[in-house]
Amino acid sequence: MNFKSILTTIAVIALALGLGVGAGYLVRHSGLMGGGGGSGGVEVTQGDYSAIYAKTGGDVVVYTLSTCPFCQQAKALLAKQNVSFVERVIDKDDVARKEADGLKINSVPVIFIGDTSMRGYNEAKLVELLNTHGKAKAKPAA
After folding, report:
1. Vertex 61, ends 115 and 24: CA angle to 5°?
2. What are the tens digits of pLDDT across the range 86-133?
3. Which of 38, 41, 96, 136 could form a disulfide with 130 if both were Cys (CB 3.0 to 4.6 A apart)?
4. Torsion angle, CA of 51/57/61/63, rounded to 10 degrees?
C-alpha cells in the first residue's frame, strides 16, 4: 500500500465518522426523538382526542419512529402491562405521517390514552397515566 492510498483511506474514514457524529447530533438536538428516562422532555396534556379513539376502538395510540429507542421502550412497557395499543409509525406510513402532521407531532413517542397525550417517554409517568385510565396491570420497575 502506498502513501497516497493510506491518506485516502484515512480521509474517507474521517469523513464517515464526521458524518455519523454530525447526524447523531442533529437527531438528538432536532427535538424529533423525545425524552429519555428522566422527566425532562416529557409533556402530558389534556384534550379532546375523540377522533383518534373513533378510529381505534378506544385503544391506546402510539406515534413512533421505527428507529427511536424511546418508542421501543414505551411499546415494551405497554406490552409488559398487557395494554392493547395501536402503533402509528410515522416514518414508514404516509397516512400516519399526515395524521402526525395534523396533530402537530414534532417529537416521538406520542402516546394518546383517553383524553390525555404524553409526548416523550418516562416509565413512571406512563404507568401513572395507564393507572389513571384503568389500563395498567403492574407497577414500574424501580
Report:
1. 115
2. 999 999 999 999 989 988 888 899 999 888 889 999 999 999 999 888
3. 136
4. -70
